[in-house]
């Protein structure tokens, strides 16, 4: 697929903003992992796609280094006020739904693509971590943060906005393809 075809597929899947990911600029930052360990999202040590189950930053960086291109995908919700949790949750659900559709289509051409979504993996109702292997490692989707990426910096380095103005919330994900 050409870059244009990747972006067209992303747009067809319903994302609000799409762009090519600056793969060489990806920084796997230990400070992000420290936030995970501090319990910011309460998933640390609770699923295979979050630390420590998803691997070390060195392992992740080595895996990512095998890819040359990627796409950045965003959904923006427009809030009624700063406490509009309903719209925040709906925008997150829309992002995850669009992301899952995009990755499903993309895997037809790139079965070994590396998706990184927003938030923890939601493929299974409950994760088997750490008692049993992942039920569907070929479908599991880690978050950008689990891989140590500062999402705002990744967007900026890729020439995309992270913040779209007052009373908005934006969820971002990316997929490395080859």
Taking pLDDT < 50 over at least 5 consecutive residues as the criterion, the unreliable ranges are none
Number of helices: 5
SSE ordering: HEHHEHEHE
Quote the distance from N terminus to C terminus.
10 Å
Find the count of extended strands (DSSP E, 2+ residues): 4
Q: Structural class of the helices, strands and pairings? A: alpha+beta
Mean pLDDT across the residues is 95
Q: Helix amount, in percent? A: 25-40%
* Alpha-carbon Rg, integer: 16 Å
Overall body shape = globular
Proportion of β residues? 5-15%
- Major β-sheet profile: 4 strands, antiparallel
| Biggest sheet, spatial arrangement of strands | 1-2-4-3
Short description:
By secondary structure, this protein is α+β, with helices and mostly antiparallel strands.
Task: Give an account of the 3D structure.
The protein has 178 residues and is an alpha+beta fold. Helix content is 33%, strand content 14%. A 4-stranded antiparallel sheet has the order 1-2-4-3. The termini are close together.
Topology, pairings included?
Layout: H1 3-12, E1 17-20, H2 30-37, H3 57-64, E2 70-78, H4 85-109, E3 114-116, H5 151-157, E4 168-176
Antiparallel strand pairs: 1-2, 2-4, 3-4
Task: Note the main attributes of this structure.
14% strand, 4 strands, four-stranded antiparallel sheet, 178 residues, 5 helices, alpha+beta, 33% helix
């Amino acid at each position: 697929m050409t870059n244009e075809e990747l972006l067209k597929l992303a747009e067809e899947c319903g994302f609000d903003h799409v762009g090519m990911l600056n793969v060489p600029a990806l920084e796997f930052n230990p400070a992000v992992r420290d936030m995970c360990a501090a319990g910011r999202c309460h998933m640390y040590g609770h699923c295979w796609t979050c630390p420590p189950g998803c691997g070390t930053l060195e392992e992740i960086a080595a895996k990512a280094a095998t890819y040359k291109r990627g796409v950045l995908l965003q959904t923006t919700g427009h809030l009624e006020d700063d406490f509009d949790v309903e719209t925040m949750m709906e925008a997150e659900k829309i992002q995850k739904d669009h992301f899952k559709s995009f990755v499903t289509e993309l895997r037809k051409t790139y079965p070994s693509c590396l998706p990184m979504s927003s938030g923890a993996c939601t493929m299974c109702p409950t994760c088997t971590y750490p008692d049993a292997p992942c039920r569907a490692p070929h479908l599991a989707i880690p978050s950008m943060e689990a891989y140590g990426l500062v999402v705002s910096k990744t967007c900026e380095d890729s020439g995309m906005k992270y913040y779209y103005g007052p009373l908005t919330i934006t969820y971002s994900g990316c997929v490395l393809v080859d």
